[in-house]
Amino acid sequence: MPRIASLLASGTEIAAALGAAGDLIGVSHECDYPSSIRALPMLTKAKVNPHLPSNEIHRDVQTVMLTALSLYDVDSEKLEALKPDVIITQEQCKVCAVSLDDVRQTISKLVRQQVDIVSLNPTCLDEIFQDVRRVAEALGKSKDGEQLVASMHARLDAVTASVKNLAAKPSVVFIEWIDPIFAGGNWMPELIARAGGVSLLGEAGAHSSVYTLQDLMEVNPDVVVIAPCGFKLKQTKKDLHLLTEKPEWKTLNAVKAGQVWLADGNEFFNRSGPRIVESVEMLAAMLHPQHFERNLSGYVSSEMVERLEQ
Predict the structure, then answer these.
(1) Burial 43-77, CB ≥16 within 10 A → b, else e
(2) Are residues 142 and 170 in the same domain?
(3) What is the pTM of this model?
């Protein structure tokens, strides 16, 4: 089996879901699932502190991008010593993870250059499935890839069938970053539609865009889901005040109806791997709580957060 270095959290999850967790020899600093990979050598680090408030992270990202080509460092010496046969990376977003350009630059410095680079670039659900197949092919596990894609389709189709005949289709704004406000694009509108909602602001297949609180007030959604890219639930709760302290926030229909949900945007939603299916199942439970049991962790209502903090 090939020796795999994954510099992308979703790539690590895909490899593990294909039964290749034991063939991983190194991962990125963001790879955290499954737990069996956490002891592997870490091959990357960020140039920006990911634990700062979202407005400060955004400021620092803008500053770094003015002076550097990348937000991440790849440990080329460690990578060369591990001698991978396959490197999994991405070219979808230079802010989210190590990019294809980073890897190419690193590989050019290595003595041993016989490496298969698998770069993922999904913008929609279909392309997530394609990426699963591409990783599977690179790992010599095409059959396992087809089985994984089939199982993901089956779970998604089950949710879609469950919401098909529901009369209510709540309007949704998915907030992918808190300050400034980014509304989720790419596959996020598809996830919302699959879960029985109508996506507002975010554009399917396009990168997420910046909006103002005034923009949210104008569309006035029934439901707001807040799941910042790279943030676990705890960090999202910590930054929630950047929205709730603004008087305009309280005028939104979703806020008045108690239909604001916080979710883990690090492990779910923004991570384009097998657990994108669980993200849809979470959304269905948020949008239609009377029809779906809450049997998944990773999300909480903002009202519950406020009660716990009182």
Answers:
(1) bbebebeeeeebeebbebbeebeeeeebbbbbbee
(2) no
(3) 0.89
